[in-house]
Amino acid sequence: MILIGTGSAVPDFTLTNQMLESMVDTSDEWIVKRTGIRERRIAKGKATWEIALEAAQNALADAGLDPLALDLIITGTVTPDFFTPSVACMVQGKLGAKNAFAFDLNAACSGFVYAADVADSFIRSGKAKNVLVVCAETLSRIINYQDRSTCVIFGDGAGAAVFQASDTEPGILARYMRADGTLGECLKARALPAETDPFAAERLAPPELRFLEMSGSEVFRFTAAAVPEAIETVLREGGCTAGDVDWFVLHQANERILRMIVTRYGLDPRKVYMNIERFGNTSSASIPLCLAEMRKNGLLRKGQRIVLCGFGGGLTYGAILIQI
Ligand code: UT7
Known about the structure:
Blueprint: E1 2-9, E2 13-16, H1 17-21, H2 28-35, E3 39-42, H3 48-63, E4 72-76, H4 87-95, E5 101-105, H5 111-124, E6 130-137, H6 148-151, E7 157-164, E8 171-179, E9 187-188, E10 213-214, H7 216-237, E11 247-250, H8 255-264, H9 276-279, H10 286-296, E12 305-312, E13 316-323
Parallel strand pairs: 4-5, 4-6, 11-12
Antiparallel strand pairs: 1-7, 2-3, 6-7, 8-13, 9-10, 12-13
């Protein structure tokens, strides 16, 4: 499969580190030093499906593809607007992509690499020719802006990619998808509480139950092992060294993780794309947000090899080596 278009959408409102200083006991210096983040976007009333739709429309315009040509739409999200309809179905309906089937995929910050792998499977099997992967998050809806351990990290945004079947281009050279559900408690956002009495008169969950909780240092430790494992596996299976790769596009969770990859493989730091400074951690949207920005700025060229690596809630992780 080949990548034929990318697009993104971010909300207008910018939450800076200075603003956060007046909300919780934190400092611009701590946030920049520990995470690399300076600002993030906040949706403020916009739904996940709305930014997903905008990113999808931009990706289709970039690809020059009519929505009617889409066979499948996969949305990566952990912040859907409804349990049903899915964000993917809402996007499908608004696009008028009536030949596509559509579903959401929850792999948290690994959402884009998981979805790209699923897209590749449908394309390889001949069941789909054109697949839209759109990842969108409005994490601000599940963030407690009194909890400094999470509110400085996360932001809202959406990114999309259009993949197409190709008989001539190699596409995905290697893939590696994993999960470790035993560590799921380290990064958690509840959906519905288990109720001892579903017939009780008062059934509303306390509001704090909706907030995301993260044991940052535990996730960091997991990531420090999982990311190299995933990257080394796709390099080995793809018959490449890190030096043969044009770009490493990793989930933008923490600048320290991205720098660790630069040091570990002795890379030119410019090969590890970063925009965490401006958008924070947007979960599943972070990798396609990077790809859209890179393509817009002319950094992606035919024949380049790119490693995509996602990691996060679940806990999930995975990598893809793709030749575009
Ligand atoms: O996207 C999904 C995947 N997620 C990740 O990969 C996240 C991985 N984790 C991280 O990026 C980092 O763990 C964080 C950025 C979340 C936290 O950085 P850390 O270096 O692991 O900090 P920590 O949680 O170990 O806390 C160090 C200190 C603590 O104070 P004491 O106990 O040493 O006095 C915290 O209370 O920093 C304190 N702290 C803060 N101080 C100022 C925690 N958050 C803040 C804050 N401002 N916002």
